[in-house]
Write a structure and sequence with these properties.
- The complex is a heterodimer of chains A (307) and B (387).
- Chain A has 307 residues and is mainly beta.
- Chain A is 8% helix and 42% strand.
- Chain A has helices spanning 21-34, 188-198, and strands at 7-19, 37-41, 47-48, 54-55, 60-61, 64-68, 72-80, 85-86, 91-92, 97-104, 111-115, 128-133, 146-151, 161-163, 173-185, 202-206, 212-213, 228-232, 235-243, 252-258, 265-269, 281-286, 300-305.
- In chain A, the strands form seven sheets. Chain A has a five-stranded antiparallel beta sheet with strand order 11-10-7-12-13, with no helix packed on it.
- In chain A, strand 8 and strand 9 form a beta hairpin.
- Chain A is elongated and about 85 Å long.
- Chain B has helices at residues 24-38, 55-58, 63-67, 87-100, 120-124, 139-155, 159-172, 188-193, 224-227, 257-270, 275-278, 289-298, 307-312, 336-352; strands at residues 5-12, 48-52, 78-81, 106-114, 196-198, 201-202, 211-220, 232-240, 281-283, 365-372, 376-383.
- The longest helix of chain B is centred in the middle third of the chain and has 17 residues, at 139-155.
- Chain B is an alpha/beta fold.
- In chain B, 35% of the residues lie in helices and 18% in strands.
- In chain B, strand 10 (365-372) and strand 11 form a beta hairpin.
- A nine-stranded mixed beta sheet of chain B has the order 3-2-4-7-1-8-11-10-9. In chain B, strands 5-6 form a two-stranded antiparallel ribbon.
- The chains are: A mainly beta (307), B alpha/beta (387).
- The interface between A and B is large, with 69 and 65 residues.
Chain lengths: 307, 387
């Protein structure tokens, strides 16, 4: 039997809804609707942007709001040449691009942002910048409403201007998708198990006392390494069953103890099989090919009542 | 202070770019087996496990559940931590606190990462605040490069000085069988000719992405002397966090608040007045060459702005007054969840006299640091003498 490495490609895509919160909501509304940049001030006069409820410099609540910028200075910079996958889009971000720590004039803290300059020779700490906003209609209420910062040569430096605490208003919620590619390496026992399934066999790990474990695994529950495997019958006992009514198609899942195994496994059940009483005998229905034609736990399509 | 605590055994995998023969549980177990074997002990001798990893790199949440059998943790306390790149050292600080309080007698620290299974630069972006930071992040390299520009602006450090750090690391790594990058013939010119990743950081200025694991067995004073001929006693185990947002610390690299705060506290606890004189070796978490120079200053190995001078004078070379990263450091192997624990293990190996070909002569006192998250720091000071 081949024991070449087995690497399984899996895309993990997750959707989130992040609340901007009581400080972020008024900030992003002002940015989106008016191109204004708001910040909070702590008891020692530190101006903190992004605005926040507690100052990290005093570990005490902030005490009021100010408006800063929108002109800014460059606190640190780079020109990025290495392409990387943007988890927001799942795509490679085009390179090169200018990037840096930007401080809105009047603020004591910085934010990372894009800089419209890809020649590091033209960038230096202390350079004066101004934001270039997207058109109002394209703004989404996040820091990317500023497309980038560009070098500014003239004009007065802005200072922090006290403002009344803004109304929070309707909460801002960000929908965000994270899309990341993974390639999982199967261990030796997993390789034997998954390749066995692809050939219509169920492989168990076996310990020194002939105790069997399905699915095959590298270590027994007590931590002992399991180095031997053997084929076992694709039949077993249903220990428990449930129907996942919240999932599309309302699939049924069962906790199945393959005959002779010390450990049960979770797998899909054939339609109607969730009605089976605990203790019922079941058998595997193989579906060679499996998920994405890779060896997979889904090389067993499901378990059905034993014939 | 509570009970005295010591490191009694360490184990590491041979860190490399891609381990396709094992899954993460088996990778971690390899380090555990090496650690326990070096002390002639088994999993049965372990009372509790502290596990460190950054979940998004492998996309497995609750890896502690997935790895419990392989770690021999079934029926035992298993604590999973994630403090970013610091996490390996956080496991050692947490174990110190558990042992010091007398909760357990023997605690196993385990850190691992298997970078080959995920997308490092993309997934690290998810450590950014989703509302404020992610839309404009550039992975770890862009962030480090921006910070490096601040340090260069403050200190006047040159790209040649940074390149010397890369040369030192990769040459030291040649004597470390666990290192990922070993480059015996590396030169400053070669570093300066390597691809620009993000100005001013070049490819050879930056740490690699590695698959690897590390395990460290720690014990309280009643057990430590029976578990090792020469335990590495913990004289300080300190952790410090910085502010919330990445842009909060203006001089985040040039003036790392958490590193200054944590090392100051640790030096006071361990009675260290002049680190350059009082320390015999340091294993520091340097994710990039420029960071090592900046950290020399924050750790008070030299005056502010003196990082470049220190490397020019060879002070931190293997034969210098204070060897820094005899192992080759993070620049030579970086399985992130294990990396800071590797620093602790390497510092302990130096104290225990177990560092083999990269052993520094006569080490009595060693420093280990962890760095990660939003500029978090962990510091451990280990000595051959009991506290």
């Amino acid at each position: 039997m081949t024991d070449e490495p087995l690497r399984l490609k899996r895309q993990v895509t997750l959707g989130y809804r992040f609340a901007a919160g009581r400080f972020g909501t008024p900030f992003f509304r002002a940015l989106r609707e008016e191109g204004r940049v708001l910040a909070t001030v702590d008891g020692e006069g530190n101006v903190l942007m992004p605005p926040r409820p507690v100052s990290g410099l005093t570990n005490a609540p902030t005490q009021g709001w100010v408006e800063v910028g929108p002109t800014a200075t460059l606190s640190g910079y780079t020109v990025v040449h290495v392409p990387f996958i943007d988890p927001m889009t799942g795509e490679r971000r085009p390179v090169p691009y200018g990037f840096g720590l930007v401080r809105f004039e009047g603020a004591g803290t910085n934010v990372y942002h894009l800089i419209d300059e890809t020649d590091p020779g033209k960038l230096r700490v202390g350079l004066r910048l101004e934001p270039v906003f997207k058109p109002v209609a394209e703004r989404r209420g996040n820091l990317a409403d500023i497309r980038f910062f560009r070098v500014r040569s003239d004009g007065e430096a802005a200072t922090a201007r006290p403002i009344p605490s803004p109304e929070v208003g309707e909460p801002v919620v960000y929908e965000q998708k994270i899309d990341l590619p993974y390639v999982y390496t199967a261990g030796a026992a997993q390789r034997a198990f998954l390749r066995g399934l692809a050939e219509g066999r169920v492989v168990a790990s076996v310990d020194d006392d002939d105790g069997r474990y399905v699915p095959a695994r590298s270590h027994a529950p007590d931590g002992r390494p399991l180095t031997r495997t053997r084929d076992v019958a694709p039949t077993g006992v249903l220990e428990a069953a449930t129907t996942a009514r919240h999932l599309p198609g309302a699939p049924a899942f069962g906790l199945i103890r393959v005959d002779g195994s010390l450990t049960p496994m979770v797998h899909r059940l054939a339609e109607g099989a969730e009605e089976l009483a605990p203790g019922s005998r079941v058998e595997a229905v193989f579906a060679p090919g499996g998920e994405d034609d890779e060896p997979s736990i889904l090389s067993i399509a499901h378990f059905r009542p034993a014939t | 202070m509570g009970r005295r605590v010591a490191i009694v055994a360490t184990g590491q995998t041979d860190h490399t770019s891609r381990r396709t023969d094992v899954n993460v549980a088996e990778l971690a177990r390899e380090a555990v087996d090496r650690c326990l074997a070096s002390a002639g002990r088994s999993l049965a001798d372990v009372d509790a496990i502290v596990l460190g990893n950054m979940e998004m790199f492998e996309g497995i949440n609750m890896p502690d559940q997935w790895m419990a059998s392989a770690l021999g943790a079934v029926g035992k306390p298993l604590f999973k931590l994630n403090t970013g790149g610091t996490v390996g050292a956080s496991t050692a600080v947490a174990a110190t606190q558990l042992l010091s309080a007398g909760v357990f007698r023997r605690v196993l620290c385990v850190g691992y990462e298997k970078h080959s299974e995920g997308s490092v630069q993309a997934s690290i972006t998810t450590v950014g605040d989703p509302v404020w930071e992610r839309a404009v992040m550039a992975g770890a390299i862009g962030n480090f490069a921006s910070m490096a520009s601040v340090y260069v602006d403050e200190s006047g450090a040159t790209e040649e000085q940074a390149a010397k750090v890369a040369v030192k690391a990769r040459r030291n790594a040649c004597r470390n069988p666990h290192a990922h990058l070993r480059m015996p013939d590396i030169t400053v010119e070669q570093v300066l000719a390597s691809d620009m990743l993000a100005h001013p950081v070049r490819k050879l200025d930056m740490c690699p992405s590695s698959d690897g694991a590390c395990a460290v067995l720690m014990a309280g004073e009643q057990d430590a002397p029976g578990l090792a001929a020469r335990p590495a006693w913990v004289h300080a185990a300190v952790t410090a966090h910085d502010q919330q947002f990445m842009g909060d610390s203006l001089k985040r690299l040039a003036e790392m608040r958490s590193l200054i705060a944590a090392s100051g506290k640790a030096y006071a606890q361990a009675g260290i007045d002049d680190p350059l004189t009082d320390l015999d070796v340091a294993e520091i978490y340097e994710p990039a060459t420029y960071a090592e120079l900046a950290m020399y200053e924050c750790l008070r190995f030299c005056e502010t702005g003196g990082g470049g001078r220190l490397i020019d004078e060879g002070v931190t070379e293997m034969d210098g007054r204070l060897p820094v990263n005899p192992s080759g450091g993070v620049l030579s192997a970086n399985p992130v969840g294990a990396t800071a624990l590797v620093r602790v293990a390497e510092a302990a190996m130096q104290v225990m006299g177990d560092a083999g070909e990269h052993q520094v002569e006569g080490v009595e006192t060693a420093l280990a640091t962890g760095y990660g998250g939003n500029a978090w720091t962990e510091i451990l000071i280990l000595r051959s003498a009991r506290p």
